[in-house]
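Aim 2, interim progress. The first record below pairs a target sequence with its C-alpha cells.
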Amino acid sequence: MLDWLSKKFGKARLMRWAMTLYPPYLGAGVRVQHISDDFRDVRVRMGLGWYNRNYVGTQFGGSLYSMVDPFFMLMLMENLGHRYIVWDKAADIDFIAPGKGPVFARFTIDDTLLDEIRRQTADGKKYLPQLQVDIHDGAGHLVARVGKTLYVRLKPQARQA
C-alpha cells in the first residue's frame, strides 16, 4: 500500500503529508512546508499557540528542538540509500533570542556532504558528521541554533561486498 501511494503521489510529497499529520507535530503546531523530490531541501514552520508557549509567552524550547529533530537523519537515509545505517547520535541547542511568533527552519544537504560521508565510511568504519540548522522568526532574526551529530556506517552486508 505504501509503495503504491509513494508511486502515485511521490515519496517526498507523501513524507511531507505524513510528517504534518504526525501527532507530536500536529499537537505542537509544526508544519512541514516543503520537501524537495530529492530530499535535499526541507522547510519547516511552527506557529506560536497556547499548546507550545512557555511560562513567559515565547516558544517552548522543547518544541523548538522537536521541530528540527528528525530531518537531517531522514534526508541522509533517503540520499545514501538502504546500504547505510543512519542514526541521530547527539544534539545541542543554543537559544539565541525568544521566539515570539512563528518560527522557521530550512535544512539542506549537498553532494559535498554525501561524498564525504561515502568516503569516510567506505572502509566500513563509522562516521559522525556534525550538521547545523538555524531557527529564525518571521523577520529573519535568529532564534536558536541546533547542532546535530549523526552516526553513519555501511550496513554489515554492504561492508562485506
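The second target in this work package is listed in the same format:
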Amino acid sequence: MSEQLGLPGMPRRLFSCTPSRLNTWLDCRRRYRFTYLDRPSPPKGPPWAHNSMGASIHNALAGWWRLPAGRRTVESAGNLLAAGWLKEGFRDEGQSTLWRERARGMVERYVAAIDPDDEPVGVERTVATRTEAIALSGRVDRIDRRGDELVIVDYKTGRRPLTEDDARSSLALAMYAVAAGRVLRVPAYRVELHHLPTETVVSWRHTDESLARHLARAEDIALEAAEAEETYKTGGRAAAKPDFPPNPGPMCGWCDFRAACPEGQEAAPAHQPWDGLAG
C-alpha cells in the first residue's frame, strides 16, 4: 500500500469497498481482478435465470414498501412482481412464465404475513462507515426499527434453506449493522435473513464485540486486496498475475468469467443459465 501511505506523517488513503467486493476477494482472487481491476474486463457469460428471479422479487418488495400504506395489498405486491419481471436467463418463454408465477406466489405470501403499516426506516437504503483503514458502503434491502434498536433485513431467494450460522457468519450483514447504526445513530445488533422460498426467517443478534470482530476482519481482507491492487497498478498486468490466483472448485461452473479462466474450466463443467432454479 505504498501509494496509500504517501509521505511520512500524511494520513493513509482509505480503501473504498463494499461487502460484495471483500467477499469476492475471499472467494476467488482472479474473479476479483476480472471484476474490479481489468479494463476492459473479460466478457461475462449469459445472465442467470435465478439472478433474474431474485432481482425481480427484490424490486417488487422495494416497490411495495414505497407505495402509500393504504395501497400495500397482497394483490399490489403480485402485480409489481409481474410488471417488473426480468426474463433474462430462462430457457424459454414457458419456463419464464412458470417461474414468474412461482415468484409471484412467494411475494404475495410474504407480504400477507407482514404489517403494511409497520413503516421501515429504510428500503434499499445505502449506508456507509469508515475506520482508519477502510471506507465501506453497501445497500440494505430493508432496515426496521423495533423498540430502541434497528434490525437489518436481507431478502434471500436461493434454493438452499438457510441456518442461523448463515446470519451469524455473514460479513455483509454485520457491516450493514455497523454502518446503519452509525449513520442513523440508533443501535443495530439484530440481523435477519428472510428466505422467501421456504417462508422462513433466520436471525442472529450481534454484540459490540462480535461486530468489532467482523469489522477487523473486513479491514484485514481490505489490506490484502489493497496490497495486491497496488502491485497490479505499479507492475502491470503480467507482474500482477501471481497476486490474483484462481480458486478452482465446484463453484467455477457458476462463474461469470469461466470462459476466461482455464483452471475454472477444468475444475467444473459449465452450468446452463437456468440450472440455479429449484427443481
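The two ends are 47 Å apart (CA to CA). This observation will shape the mutagenesis plan for the next reporting period.
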